[in-house]
Design goal:
By secondary structure, the chain is α+β, with helices and mostly antiparallel strands. The protein has seven helices and 28 strands. The strands form seven sheets. Strands 16, 17, 18, 19, 20, 22 and 23 form a seven-stranded antiparallel beta sheet that branches. A four-stranded antiparallel beta sheet has the order 2-3-6-7, with no helix packed on it.
Length: about 400
Amino acid sequence: MEPPVSYPQSDSYQGRKVYGKRSGCAGKGCFGIIGAIVIIIAVIAIGYFFALPAIMPNSISGSFLDAEIVPTKSGEQKLWVLTDGSFNFIQTTKSPGRTSTGRECYFCKTWTYILNPKDQSVEKKIKTPYEDIITQIDLFYQDGKVWAFTRDYGENEPRIETFDPETGEKTMDTKQFLAQFPELSAGLATAYYDKADGVIRLKTKDGIDGLLYSIKDGKLYKDFSAMKKAAMKDSSETFVAILAGENSTSSPRKKLYKISGPSNKISDNLSSLDNFAADDDRMKDYKLSSQSLGEKVYLEGIMYHTDKDCAIIIYLDQLGKKSNRFMTCVDLKTGKEKWTLGKDDLFEKMQIDEEDDVFSSLFFTKDKIGVKRRGNLVILQLQYEGLIGFDFETGKKLWEMDI
């Protein structure tokens, strides 16, 4: 059985498969060349993962995972940036009749950076070790806590943790979270953060599936029906923004609507509101009202962020293999457009060019984009690329960080 062959790669979150011919060297000379190569690679790896962070402690290193805007007691905002600082590589193992290739990591860890968003200066840097490849970690701020949700993979068990927004110190680990609920006493098999619904979907090691933890109300529900039943008790007036297809949900032409009414009625019909947002009679049957927010059409539009003040939509300028993305912010109180940003303000790799690279298509890139807003700061993030900060009131680009 031949020994594993590793192809190191430290500048990207994804590994890269490498092919080549076996050299014709033999004997001590061959081993000498191989040994020299191994030593050079080891020196480079040690320099990148140990010496560089020590020399430049306030620089951001690693592959970008997620970011969150976090308010502090002083009224200022901090930017939490999470990167994968592991040494990731592709390893190929050969044996008679079989070759297996997979991604591995050494020095598996994340870096959490707490920055001042005004000048992007690093105020604190936190190292968190892991046992295996880091696939996904989500950051989320709620009610004075910064939550971190780690997807399980290999030797990494799922993690649910909270941190102090002022100091960055951990205030709750996974064991402390589990101790709050008898149903979770066996431990977690999987934990998945559902951004759309704002819940953690859980499966326990003793086979209980479908459990939902609501971050908003801090309660554990046995399933979606139980959570929906609890939501039906709230009859306070509220509204939601809905991006609906012009003629059907599958239509690429979408318009923005504001649906108002009792919270329980909105919750009960949320899954079908995009079908009937323009149908006044159906809205009356639901005891809701619908308001069209302008006549603008958002081609293949996706609403990446919405809150009580605004909706932020990313869409295409035209259909086809080559197109540009635009980002528009709409004021939900007035129904008017606050600002629109074009390709010169966004990441270049958000442009669609399937003739050049099929993976730049709408389907392959839409889940790599994220938008968050708090106070007067909006951040646009693109996986493997970095962050751009914008002024909420004007849409002016404040800064850009390549990570």
